[in-house]
Amino acid sequence: MTDLVAPSVKRSHPVDELFTGAASALWATTYSVDLSLFNEFLLPRLGEPPLNVVVLADHRRLATSLDRLPADAVDALAAVNRRWLLRGVRPGGQAFHPKTYLAVAGTRVTLLVGSGNLSMTGLDRGREVFTSFRSGTPIGDAAIASWRTWVRRVVGLVDDAVLAQRLLDLEARLPTKPAGTPAVASPMLHNLDTSLAAQLKTILAEQAPSGIDELLLSAPYYDDDAEAVGRLLTDLRPRHVRIFLTSDTSVNGDRLKDQLRVGGTTADVLMYQPDEFVHAKLVGAIAGSQGWLLSGSANLSRAALTRTVGRGGNVEVAVLTKLTADETRAVFTPPETTAVGVDLDRLKSWSFRTEPEPAAPAVRLISAAAEDGGRVEVASEPTAEPHWLLDDLAQRQPLTLDATGRAITAGPLAGRLVRLIDADGSILSNQVVVDNTSALSAALTDAARPGNDLPDGLTTGDLDTPLGQVLAWLHRNLVMELSEKVTPAAAGGLAADEETEQGSDDLWGRLEREQLGRDPRASRYGRMWSDTLDDSEPIIELLDALRARTPSEAATGRTGHSLLERLLTEDIDAEDGKREAEEDSKPRRWQLNARVRIRARNLLRRWADAQTDPRLVWVEPLAPAGNFTMIAGALAKLTLATARTPDHVALTKDDLDDLWLRWLGVFAGGGTHAGWLNQVDQNTRTNAQRRLPAWLPETAAALNWLTVRPGPAHRERIVQAQPLIIAALNHDLLDPTDETARYLSAITGHTVTRAEIDQQLVDAATYIDDDLWCTRTAAELTLEDLTLKAPPGAAAIEVRLDVRGITDPLLDPRLPRLLAATRQYRRCRGIVVYATDGSWRLSIIDGKKIAVRPGHGQRFIESTEPVSDHVLDQINTAIGVLADLFP
Asked: 730 and 690 in one domain?
């Protein structure tokens, strides 16, 4: 082990060091907590949100404190689990006993590890020992990294999603260690894996090979038989021992005396003067002029020193500091205190005092969270049963279990403290303070900060444009993309060895799922699935945002099922657009508009690509369908506005066509793209198609027709849009109506009939231009060459492809995409593909197994199952290869 760095020994002031207005986070682990002190004095010192405050206390101790809380004092809990999070911890069944405090203020992190609980005595008035660490120093960074890994493991043991979410937020606030910082051994020790006594023995054996001259011990609590002291004496074999006591020390004096006589060790017993309670827990070792000090939360007991968590040990944290011999001795004498020697025989006057804990209830209530409407969800060990009730000391509500196993009250409860009871009213569990999840989430953010509601890629200046406002509205109201920061690895930033220590607990994946499921934007999706448009629907709010109007200014009373009709009859008709253009005589900032256009286009493209993120279903199972619907409405509005007043919209016609085809391809698929509708199961696909609003097919028909209407580069545009139009037709997403014709007539400036729209869409879907199709498909798949030829004569083969650029047909993911695109383009079910150099050949016939000759002189092999469009879609969705279908 690398030598530990020796910090200076000085008086610590935890309240002043930790609780400052500059703090953005404060995490405390403690055995006991004074809630009145924390809420009324310490919390106000921390200032206003954004603020991440968490206190982890011993579960049994916390439960006892809450049980003793008078009814008229419950108001003192107002900030608990609203502004800050309080959780009880009891892993392994033994005490949760660590005293650590970590505060983040700007780029500075302060960590205190010691013996003091979160109380006035523990932080300010008691005789405690703390070790302070600061970020930006080698020893401080090492200790903070160790604490971070340790607390992540503790949170994993607690298995609480709200707590885990706040840990991810804390890790995002911690500054990264500067590159080139020298590595030193961490002085912080814990007993999750190895006992503190065993670690101390190993380190001193390495650093003091000639043995320990002097062992110094001080703690307020020992074992009933002083066994932990005996273990230290056996492990370290000191030549002399000094024991520091007060009259309040809980120790069996006779057994301690027996332990001291083992092995020929000489011993001194010293009493503190004045004789006052000393809560510091210290083990000092001296060899020559060198000293080592083990300080922290561990008493001189088996559960603290010689056992690990889960094997009869408490949860403990200690710091091993390397000092001089004189510095080590000095720590054992607090300021204004002396130590006076007493005769060893006086030890018999000390006795071990048991402090039995109250019997634990049958059920451990871990947390309770209030939902909208006042119903309360609970988490407990064991899991709640249907006949249990939740009691807030004023009312009781029966618990119900939903399909996912969540236990939630049948009706609302308003009380801040709740507990579980059975049908007879017998108490089953401890009490906990109810979480207000919305308030807890809000405490982590600063909603008033400008630009907080902006999606990545936009600036506050973009809100001056209608397009910027509509993109901000979409970001605030719908889940268009999911940030990668929510994942534990990204937020945690742990090194590889730290990640290994965490284990494979699935809490973090469940945390992300639950966090996304609570996104308040999820409720918006339920309001989209309606056949009648009214002014309360999200699509109308979106259009009003695009027009820079508030809903109160919008026209009311319009209902129906046609969005295009509504757009055409809105009060900004063509004449209004002309007047606006005439009135707007000021010079335009074209450079700013160009920047807005690029940012908006890139954002909408990124959002389109994000719709296949499988995590979106955790927000709302049909979220991609809802997002596609809203984008279709917005693009229809922007397209109409662009045609009437092109100078007032930041996106060009080409931009709008490109964005529509991109979104349509991601949603419905087509050509080389699988599409969301092809990736979900049949039930989800049917449900999505059934719930899409009635106005969507006529709107989609209009937007598709615009991409293939007669004009420049007509052939190229048809080939680009064709696979997407075919996919949309297959999914019943296109249905031209008279309103479609009216809308397109308004955009083009000449009459377009419904029959013409229908025919031109069919013509586009059936259009054949093999050379152009091959050129475009080869470019999409980065093939060196692609040629479509007449079939070789086999009855079931309809198309032959010659390909250059694919070496291994079974392992190249481009080949299944090429097959899917070809089958759609030529509406064929039999294809043969040749490598242009003759090295391999493949044939695929619907309903039959794929046959492949993978190389020169090799035999044909067959797939294990017949091929179909569905099978190809599955492979392409997973970015798989044809080898997945072969033995």
From this structure: yes
